[in-house]
């Protein structure tokens, strides 16, 4: 079968095919009404979306909670930097592995069982974390939780997309991203609330996720499997029953036939047996979809979201927040901004579509990153000098630095100073503590007393009067990232693959997301060491510009289309879809016709059912 753009739209196929109707009037309501009649959004669909999105909540909670827990854990368990990094990155690394293998599980066991497995894993993980007697058990718990996150991150968007009516699909899948950022927000509030329990606070922080995990596990027991997966497995009467239930008892014949026909067609095209990934790579449209899906996930992480979120605490320290507790609460404000602006994405996704939303978001993200970089540049150009060259018994490299900037870029040193208003004085560059970088290895900043004239220890940052530029950059960054680049890679991936390739496609792209997540967060400090902070943020700006070209050329609009029809968008040559995005000027809707499958506007409407 040919897959060129023209032929796939105009091919004549067996009875029961769909027709692509282009309404050049650009009136979305015309087709929208038809779809509203065809696929009503019932309360039940919202219930399904809620219980599945709890997986997103757990993803956000478990990735977010660790920063606050670490503040307590590193003292309580005497963790060195390596152990701290292990406890943070092991979860993300495990998520990458389990997301990649989740594709196979999804095809084999179905979406429902995978969601049940992930909530079970989350529950076990939170019990282990909450009761952990030592750091090794903590590490085991963090790895287990990561396995749950990986499976949830690739299954939940697919499940929601498969049960949603097409005209609400984008919004409902984006709700999963809202739950991710909601989970991150709740985790920072929980971190704040339990930070006063110096010894056991971390147990509550890490263990509390058992409640949403159990809620999802028991809730999902009573919820149905995806009708698309059931049909693919030949369980047709069950599939029809589920479809009727989620469409509120309406006539589902059209939708059912569309799914069934496209499964038969896909099976003919893709053939049975063999490795799905090889079939994806050997089949033009799915190969191109995979390229777009993985590219989006890669650029999401390359735009530095997790560095910015993680680094927000330091940015706030630069802006003058010295107290740990205050820093925890203010980083809750960062998560709240991320969450609130994801809400804007949920609102916009069906109004402006995925493509425009992603493009606008990338543009704003790039500009904000540039502003962040300029803020860091100004701070570095006005970096305070080292005025006290103390006698260094350990003969460390810290002695050689004449300014704060190179001193703080060296991971083994920190800047110790006093201040009078905004004036920095009595400053020195001294080695950071071996067991904790919270204080210097010795001297004034080793034993710091509370009080106005006491010395201040700046690790990883320099005091600056340009922190406000960085702060504005941070807020703008989140406001632009959260509605588009945050949720759209997940949403788009849930819809661009045909059913036979959907699990594997999502597994690969989610895997790419997690792999780049680890890469970006683990390399940030090294990149900053080589390029300085402003260099690192200019680098992210450059990567976002590349992402902008990628999205401009490669991301087609999927709004309003049935899942079964989206494959056609990838039938042209690689990255020609931007140019031919069908929804940029006109609305495209598929309706069922007898006998042929052509653009209705090419002929007339006389043979529409
Ligand atoms: O879409 C999510 C979201 O934007 C989160 O804030 C971020 O931490 C994740 O890495 C990302 O995948």
TrEMBL record:
Residue ranges of the region described as Disordered: 1-38
Sequence ranges of Low complexity compositional bias: 22-31
Protein name as it appears in the record: Proton myo-inositol cotransporter
Organism for this UniProt entry: Solea senegalensis
PROSITE patterns to which the protein is assigned, alphabetical: MFS, SUGAR_TRANSPORT_1, SUGAR_TRANSPORT_2
UniProt xrefs under CDD domains: MFS_HMIT_like
Alphabetical list of NCBIfam families matching this protein: SP (TIGR00879)
Topology in the lipid bilayer: Multi-pass membrane protein
Cellular-component GO terms for this entry: apical plasma membrane
